[in-house]
Give the backbone structure.
Amino acid sequence: MNECKDIESLIPGYLEGRLEVGDARRLLAHLKACPDCRDEMEINFLLEEGIRRVESGETLNLDSELDKKLHATEETLLLLDRIRSGIYIVEGTAAFMIAACFLMLFLF
Ligand SMILES: [Zn+2]
């Protein structure tokens, strides 16, 4: 599949933490649906992280570490979405605070 080739080419960038948001989003969504690319990701993760850990003498629990990393990325993407829609919430909150201040002035 063409999409798999495309996704595979994003994996090294992901592990180095230099993917653009749109690419990271695409990668994560694809990994959930495609076991082949998930395997590819695990192999790359093992090579990248495993070698570093062996050098520093730490043990590596591959599955849970990769899950943690992918989960953290997902959280970051969700946070970005929330920040974007949060602009409106902040505006709403500001209006509420101003209204509350006026109310306090009149009441006390
Ligand atoms: Zn794939």
